[in-house]
Design a protein that fits this description.
This protein has about 350 residues and is an all-alpha fold. It has 16 helices and two strands. It has a two-stranded antiparallel ribbon. It is flat and about 90 Å long.
């Protein structure tokens, strides 16, 4: 991290936040007594954050108290405020891409030491900033960092659960499948790159591979269950007492949002097979066609408005008419809800 702190801060960086390869530690020159004093001071400052509160406009008195809290020397002559300012400059100017932020925030133990001070410093600078554009950038920065911070915290919690229960990976996947996102595996990749030891890196890589294998098995099982469920629904439709009853069942499934893709696929295949059959009676073909068209119309009813709009625009043949309809579609309507959350003042 010394490379982005700048020459003047390289010495302090060793006691501030480790680079992407090194663990943060207190300055080695500190004695045991000074270390204890430093840790006690950190706890007091962290406790003070809950009293000050977050997401509100700080008064001059509060701002002064915050500044005083951040004036204490943390490492090699650098105060907490100076360190947090370097974080702000790094996130906002030097590395504005969020993927670079994740490489830093993945060091959870170190980041937790500075996290409350970082958000507090952002609020202080928001309060005193007179340039509206810079103020807005600080607000957006704090919100984005907080969002990514929360995501990584969730990923690390899942990673810890997996690491502590290596024999229960299948059960964890079944219970928390939605948490195994692409961002989770990207976070694992950042962790692999963060460790120096080959054994640690290999252990994380093998854990990720086991997760992928368990996810594949789980998804295949669910897919089979979906097909079985769709087949059961389709059989129930075919066993209806009348064609009208069958159509009513399809419409009921659509209203209940149970007309899923697997069932629609079965209906489409059944109609395609009936249409091309040379031995099937025309009456049966008519029944299958009616079921097919009913399912198709029911899908239109439950399709999202955006999909309906897109299909409508694509069906306009005249280019000028299509362009005019497109302009109307994207014209602002009579909406009164706030769309730009970044216009809000507080960090929360």
């Amino acid at each position: 991290m010394a490379c982005w702190l700048g020459p003047a801060c390289r010495v302090a960086a060793a006691g501030v936040l480790r680079s992407e390869r090194q663990r943060l530690s207190l300055p080695r020159a500190l004695t045991a007594a000074k270390r204890a004093t430093f840790l006690e001071q950190q706890r007091e400052e962290a406790a003070g954050l809950t009293r000050v509160g977050h997401g509100s406009v700080a008064s001059p008195t509060v701002t002064k108290v915050i500044d005083n809290q951040d004036e204490s020397e943390v490492a090699m002559g650098y105060t907490m405020a100076q360190i947090c300012d370097r974080f702000i400059a790094f996130f906002m100017d030097e590395k504005p891409e969020t993927k670079d932020w994740r490489k830093i925030l993945v060091f959870r133990e170190e980041w937790r030491r500075y996290r409350p001070h970082f958000y507090k410093r952002c609020q202080v600078r928001i309060d005193v900033e007179t340039d509206t554009s810079v103020k807005q950038k600080l607000i957006v920065l704090a919100r984005k960092v907080k969002k990514i911070d929360a995501e990584i915290e969730m990923h690390m919690e899942l990673f810890t659960e997996l690491r502590e229960n290596p024999t229960d990976i299948n059960a964890i996947v079944a219970r928390r499948r939605k948490d195994f996102t692409g961002d989770f595996f990207r976070n694992l990749n950042f962790l692999v790159n963060a460790y120096n030891g080959l054994d640690e890196r290999d252990a994380i890589a093998r854990l990720g591979a086991k997760c992928l294998s368990a996810i594949h098995a789980y998804d295949c099982t669910l897919q089979q269950l979906d097909i079985d469920s769709a087949q059961s629904k389709f059989d129930d439709i075919l066993n209806s007492s009348s064609l009208d009853d069958a159509c009513d069942k399809i419409k009921g499934l659509a209203k209940a949002k149970e007309l899923d893709s697997s069932l629609v696929l079965l209906i489409n295949r059944a109609w395609a097979a009936a249409k091309d059959s040379k031995t099937m009676k025309n009456k049966v073909k008519d029944i299958m066609h009616h079921i097919y068209t009913t399912a198709k119309e029911s899908l239109k009813i439950i399709s999202p408005p955006e999909m309906k709009l897109l299909k409508y625009l694509l069906n306009i043949e005249d280019p000028e008419d299509r362009f005019a309809a497109l302009a109307i579609a994207f014209s602002p309507g009579d909406e009164h809800e706030v769309k730009d959350e970044d216009a809000l003042y507080t960090i929360e």
